[in-house]
Design goal:
Layout (H helix, E strand, L loop, with lengths): L13 E4 L5 H11 L14 E4 L5 E2 L5 E2 L7 E7 L9 H20 L3 E4 L3 E4 L2 E12 L5 E10 L16 H5 L5 H22 L1 H10 L7 E6 L2 E10 L5 E4 L3 E4 L5 E3 L3
Parallel strand pairs: 1-2
Antiparallel strand pairs: 2-5, 3-4, 5-9, 6-7, 7-8, 8-9, 10-11, 10-14, 11-12, 12-13
Length: about 260
């Protein structure tokens, strides 16, 4: 399989938004206004949008992503995954997850992990999430990926309904400039994406497995009304969670939920 060609660096231009409903929504509007997604416009691939205030952030499976004004990273990037196929969307997801974890580990230490498929965890607490929204053509071409990233930086008070949030400030006791960290995060993303382009997915995949939350450990999972304990064996190269209990099972994203803290 051909590899994507790294063109413009990810994170340039870096655009600061004072207030927006969702950085992913804003990025999608830029695609539409540029006459995309069926072609790549110069200067569009790699664009990053950072919001000081995000009013309606989106999480996985339609959930709301809570973020306090001027306290956290709310960031979206436009990527044209030239050379990747739509069937290989997990390649990009894992690449982004590895970059985010590497970035966070620099400040939070070695207890940083990736919880399948691409949540950012520190110990047993969620520090961030990734939402990638893709544009697939009618002929199956993968035209664009909007990579949305939310990371808790300085926030210390969270809604009671959130089960296990944590921020970088809570971990380190320090305050940070979220915008400065977002720019640094872009450099980690660019380096990981270029590694995907030049070295291929196997290198990224091994890094992903090395940082996988609870690998080789028993966890509780929920599928519909069934709660069961299983051993996390690995994540397959196409992104399915492989676990072992009475039998060996594989799950696609959305088929099971983690039961944490009980």
């Amino acid at each position: 399989m051909s590899q994507p060609s790294p063109v413009a660096p990810l994170g340039l231009p870096f655009i600061e938004l004072q207030s927006v409903d969702s950085t992913n929504n804003y990025a999608r509007l830029q695609i539409r206004s540029a006459g995309l997604p069926d072609r790549q416009e110069p200067g569009t691939h790699g664009m990053a949008f950072f919001a000081h205030e995000q009013l309606a952030g989106k999480g996985q499976r339609g959930r709301h992503w809570e973020t306090e004004k001027d306290a956290n990273i709310a960031l979206s990037l436009l990527i044209n995954p030239s050379g990747l196929t739509a069937s290989g969307q997990f390649n990009l997801s894992a690449c982004v997850a590895v970059a985010v974890a590497d970035f966070f580990r620099k400040y939070a230490g070695d207890q940083t992990r990736i919880k399948w498929p691409n949540d950012l965890y520190w110990q047993d607490r969620k520090a961030g999430g990734i939402l990638i929204e893709n544009s697939i053509s009618g002929t199956g071409d993968w035209n664009w990926a909007i990579v949305g990233i939310g990371i808790n930086i300085n926030q210390v008070f969270f809604s009671p309904g959130l089960p296990n949030p944590v921020s970088l400030r809570q971990i380190t006791g320090q305050n940070f400039d979220p915008c400065t960290l977002a720019r640094e995060l872009c450099s980690f993303l660019d380096a990981a994406y270029r590694r995907l382009c030049t070295d291929g997915f196997p290198v990224i995949y091994q890094d992903y497995l090395a940082q996988l939350y609870k690998i080789g450990e028993p966890v509780k999972l929920k599928k519909e009304n069934r709660v069961f304990e299983a051993l996390v064996k690995r994540v397959t190269p196409d992104g399915r969670l492989l676990v072992q209990h009475a039998i060996e099972e594989e799950f696609n994203f959305g088929e099971v939920e983690w039961v944490i803290g009980s």
